Amino acid sequence: MSPKAQKPAPAETEEAPPELEDLPGVGQATADKLRESGYADLMELAVASPDDVATAADIGEGAAQKIIQEARKRVQVGGFESGSAILERRRKLGRISTLSKALDELLGGGVETQAITEVYGQFGSGKTQLGLQLSASVQLPPDQGGLAGEAVWIDTENTFRAERLAEIAKALGLDPTQALERVHVARAFNSNHQELLVPKAFELARERPVRLLVVDSLTAHFRAEFLGRGALAERQQRLNRHMHELLRFGDVFNAAILCTNQVSARPDVLFGDPTGPIGGNIVGHTATYRIYLRKSKPPRRIARLVDSPNLPEGEAVFSVTGEGIRD
Ligand code: GTP
Ligand code: MG
């Protein structure tokens, strides 16, 4: 008998899942405020930060900390985990195929769930095309490289193209009309709106099987709004917080997060590559996988895996074709 069998499945021990109000210190008013801010169940509270919960529920940070701890106990989150438990969780990781074998291999089998994959590169390097491809691929059944899921798309630059998505979906044998129904797009008008769309995505993902969240682009609004040295610290702080919310989404829904990012000239770099991704270290350290895309002889692109906890650095060549991403 496996050790897992000793722990009864939740369905056998609980008649109904615990509600926010079941937590000590959470009355109706607090529960309502929490729900309004997007904390709909204990899992979401368990992985939240005291600071965020305090603000959301209008309570002190100490009280927030206690609520989070209690939520963690109830849903069994937090504390130390054995290596085998971590392995078990990793087994639940899903992967979405890019439809390029080389690119999938570079990523260890496709774009991973419970992680942020950041793609950065110059205009036309294929970042948006990759997002569109994944929004179609995610809908495929698992044996074809998908997760039989849906996608949420936060569009900051108005570059989402439904016609193009339909074309890419059709090439996969999906019904284009149905495929478009399964991609939920919101236009973000500024960085603040962009941040507010994450709790909206949480709401949506409670109703629909969302397994992919695309943010295209992650940094454009932040870059445009926070100008000059004086604004840098706040920009980085806001980006950091935003990315952690995205990660939380990935954890809660076992979804993949794809963020696109542009490159900018870095006046501080005198030698080596004078261009780098916007957001610098904050974005780089929070992203689980970081891919640098560059143009090669058309229609080819070169992807370089820059930063990964468990995969070797390397490069893959793929093409942007009429049908989408291919080798
Ligand atoms: P920015 O958002 O401007 O930073 O660029 P990006 O990296 O998002 O580029 P994007 O993914 O939009 O790539 C644009 C390129 O993809 C075009 O220059 C084309 O080479 C290719 N592409 C886009 N649409 C099509 C299409 O319908 N057919 C083909 N064959 N190629 C396409
Ligand atoms: Mg783009």
What does this structure look like?
The protein has helices at 10-13, 28-36, 42-46, 50-57, 61-75, 83-91, 101-106, 127-137, 162-171, 176-181, 191-207, 220-225, 229-253, 280-286, and strands at residues 95-96, 111-112, 115-121, 150-155, 183-187, 210-216, 256-261, 263-265, 275-277, 289-295, 300-307, 314-321, 324-326. The strands form 3 sheets. It has a 9-stranded mixed β-sheet with strand order 5-4-6-7-3-10-11-12-13, sandwiched between helices. The chain has a two-stranded antiparallel sheet with strand order 1-2. The chain has a two-stranded antiparallel ribbon with strand order 8-9. Helix 8 packs across helix 9 and helix 11 runs parallel beside helix 13. The protein is of the alpha/beta class and 327 residues long. It is globular. It folds into 2 domains: 20-75, 5' to 3' exonuclease, C-terminal subdomain (DNA polymerase, domain 1, Orthogonal Bundle), CATH 1.10.150; 89-326, P-loop containing nucleotide triphosphate hydrolases (Rossmann fold, 3-Layer(aba) Sandwich). Helices cover 42% and strands 20% of the residues. Strand 10 and strand 11 form a beta hairpin. The chain contains 14 helices and 13 strands. Bound molecules: guanosine-5'-triphosphate and magnesium ion. Residues 121, 123-129, 159, 164, 262, 299, 320-322 line the site of guanosine-5'-triphosphate (GTP). The site of magnesium ion has 4 residues, from helix 8.
